[in-house]
Design brief:
This protein has about 260 residues and is α/β, with parallel strands linked by helices. It has 8 helices and 7 strands. A 7-stranded mixed beta sheet has the order 1-2-3-4-5-6-7. Helix 1 packs parallel to helix 2. The longest helix is centred in the middle third of the chain and has 16 residues. It starts with 5 loop residues before the first strand and ends in a 25-residue tail after the last helix. The C terminus is likely disordered.
Length: about 260
């Protein structure tokens, strides 16, 4: 059964030391769950696009390819280009930012993201603790963004989701944004969490028995069936709007 719900925000193992599943595994899981589409947004990169495209073509599921833009000031915005000009702006943005930094890093700034935002569908990704400093940065950035912009709502299952979702929904209303529900997936299925824990320890330079709060307390960062995301507990007063595959399917990669 296919539902009118797409999980747009997933990261593959091409998000180095964060993602714990291959792009084709994300696509296959989305197909098995009956999702309307699957989105891939690796950190400051399109590296997983070709494998995801081939897997989506074989599985017969629409693929929405974007990238998770992580700026120096700590903002995270997923961008999905809607036409070839938007693709050109986004790839140039990443090329310049990667060449300006040492290998493995990205010298990306919020004003540069704004300059490339025309023709993008943008998802602003809040941190677990959306403090006042984060809110101020988003408030300053929003007037400069030219693309269609939404705010992501994710459950962290830490006992504070009700208050957090309510606060973010109120912010979305104040900012004039619609909300998008997502698991912000890092792996395709719960069984991959042990690997996600290992790569987290490598990234944070800690032993696994000393990792503590560096590790997620649950195995929920994977694509979910639509009803599980559309009706979260402690639902905020501002409703969750399930994401539709609004960004068109990108041109196929060259053979």
């Amino acid at each position: 059964m296919t539902h009118d719900f797409a999980e747009l925000l997933t990261a593959s193992n091409f998000t180095f030391l964060t993602g714990a599943s291959h792009p084709d595994e994300m696509v296959a899981q989305a197909r098995a769950l009956g999702l309307a589409a699957i989105g891939l947004a690796d950190r400051n990169s399109f590296a997983g696009m070709v494998r995801a495209h081939l897997a989506a073509k074989d599985a017969g599921i629409p693929l929405v390819v974007g990238t998770r833009l992580v700026t120096r000031c700590g903002l995270e915005i997923a961008a999905y280009p809607t036409d070839l000009d938007a693709w050109a702006r986004l790839t140039r943005l990443l090329t310049d930012a990667n060449f300006a930094a040492r290998k493995g890093d990205c010298e990306l700034h919020a004003d540069a993201v704004a300059s490339a935002s025309h023709g993008q569908v943008l998802l602003i990704i809040p941190p677990c603790e959306p403090d006042q400093a984060w809110q101020d940065r988003v408030t300053s950035l929003l007037p400069t963004l030219k693309g269609e912009t939404h705010l992501v709502l994710t459950r962290w299952f830490d006992g504070r989701d009700g208050e957090r979702l309510h606060r973010l929904s109120r912010l979305a209303t104040d900012w004039g944004l619609t909300t998008v529900a997502s698991t912000d997936a890092r792996y395709h299925a719960p069984g991959r969490k042990p690997l996600a824990d290992v790569v987290t320890c490598i990234r944070e330079h800690v032993r696994i028995n000393e990792a503590g709060f560096h590790l997620a307390a649950n195995a929920d960062r994977h694509p979910n069936p639509p009803p599980q995301l559309s009706h979260p507990p402690h639902r905020p007063s501002h409703p969750l709007h399930p994401p539709a595959p609004t960004a068109p399917r990108p041109p196929p990669p060259p053979h």
